[in-house]
Prior knowledge:
- By secondary structure, chain A is of the alpha/beta class.
- Chain A has a single domain, classed as Metallo-beta-lactamase, Chain A (4-Layer Sandwich).
- Chain A has helices at 22-28, 60-66, 93-96, 114-122, 206-212, 229-232, 240-243, 254-257, 283-290; strands at residues 2-7, 41-45, 51-54, 83-87, 108-113, 134-139, 145-148, 151-157, 182-188, 194-198, 217-221, 265-269, 293-295, 301-303.
- In chain A, the strands form 2 sheets. In chain A, strands 6-5-4-3-2-1-14 form a 7-stranded mixed beta sheet. A 7-stranded mixed beta sheet of chain A has the order 7-8-9-10-11-12-13.
- In chain A, strand 10, helix 5 (206-212) and strand 11 form a beta-alpha-beta unit.
- The longest helix of chain A is centred in the middle third of the chain and has 9 residues, at 114-122.
- The mean pLDDT of chain A is 93.
- At the A-B interface, helix 1 and helix 2 of A face helix 1 and helix 2 of B.
Amino acid sequence: MHILTLGAAAGGGFPQWNANNAQCRRARASDPMVPPQTQSSVAISLDGQQWCLFNASPDLRQQINDNPQLHPRADGPLRQSPIRSVVLTNADVDHVAGLLNLRESQPFSLFATARVHTTLRANSIFNVLNPDYVTREQTQLEREFAPLPGLTVTAFAVPGKVALYLEDPAAEGFGTVAEDTVGLEVREAASGRRFYYIPGCARVDDALRARIAGAAVLFFDGTLFTDDEMLAAGEGIKTGTRMGHIAMSGPEGSLAALADVAVERKFYIHINNTNPVLMRDSDARRQVATAGWEVAMDGMEIRL
Amino acid sequence: MHILTLGAAAGGGFPQWNANNAQCRRARASDPMVPPQTQSSVAISLDGQQWCLFNASPDLRQQINDNPQLHPRADGPLRQSPIRSVVLTNADVDHVAGLLNLRESQPFSLFATARVHTTLRANSIFNVLNPDYVTREQTQLEREFAPLPGLTVTAFAVPGKVALYLEDPAAEGFGTVAEDTVGLEVREAASGRRFYYIPGCARVDDALRARIAGAAVLFFDGTLFTDDEMLAAGEGIKTGTRMGHIAMSGPEGSLAALADVAVERKFYIHINNTNPVLMRDSDARRQVATAGWEVAMDGMEIRL
């Protein structure tokens, strides 16, 4: 299995257009210790020819251009793409806006829960995905589906929050329901090896720990290093808890919560522009590495 | 006045993700005669400090990263952007999707006709533009407004077509009304110099010729070189006429229709991936140059 990181950053990317913190300034100045990152998405393939995207980031056009694996084959027909399918984990802008790039009557399958499909249908702009070519497949929690031949995926609910633009301020939990945010369990049929993609998660509980134990690879929510870093930096008014994202550090953080879970390789992804792990020379980055975690980065391809 | 071309290509950009024609392949192979282009948009400034965008392309995040003029000032506050306003010419995906990048509670003004604002309001995903910070200003045809101090803009109807995803197959002209597609007349108050931005236009009539005569600069719809080039290439089933875009060549084309109109500099913009003018060594490019036209390209900044 090929896992290609198209983008490693959280919504807004790194640097973010209107963020002027020290690490965004270093990224803009081409500091080699602080490389820019596009918004989070990974592409999966078994044969290196047919690919499935997990989420479609607003940077998808740039990501396709930057990764030859996703170009039409030079000897292919006039209209061609190696992208066979897209699986969505929620309806966040940074996970769905890239669908608007997948126009021009190219056949592919779009997998998402009923909640996410309802949001897409309610937004007419997504009608640029020609229904004669793009099939919208509704996934059920805990029910396997196959976005590529030989690859099975199971979506499962994780603690999270409905997309910001869909929040209902009057409702408990802003109107969030279980299937608003899912993690993906991925299994290669031939080898049975498992990998998890969980770019948004508010809390790690025993059920989640038990599920991922023994996996080959985990990609996990790396939005914030500390729960209040956006407030502390003066750049925002929300904690990670409020945004539906567990922090890395602290007694309730993912470093502690996942320390004893046996996984061969653990990667943080969906990393906010305020998170100091984006600087390779930061203390936070060293702490994460010492704990056995890697930090995903644009263009990184790993094989299982 | 500064006019910065953020992107020169039509919807889908160049190369387009699933297009495998010879010129897209040359662009992917980094042929210096065929440079890639992002999707069409220009940024305007009088002082080089405050900028107004004409349309917000899906590539806007990359365009901001690529153009230091649009970065936060290194000595500015933690949240800052030189982008003060956005003016939309229609609701096409390649003109509005970039708004989804302008999140994070940054104040700016968004100018568009009532028809375009209605479409944005009907698509909840655009609620990521925080209403406490982003003011939506409704423009009237032929009524001046000021997206920057000292800069006046007048939107005027041009022959065109409603956005693809809003087409009503049962209605005459697919349900298009006058203000679905506008051109922009731009005037620097201090000098009185005029410039026109018309990225989509189905037909050049006497009224349009009379309006633009004597302008300093024209940016005009350069989608196709020949009306049927997408069919001829086997890449599409629509003519330019069907898509609401006049071709460059032919007796009804823009080269002929605008040949006698006195404009200091004429640029084609919004250029489709099939248009041979994207190749600097093509006959089409030479014909265009011989007729006194320039072809816009990413990063080009001109001053009036």
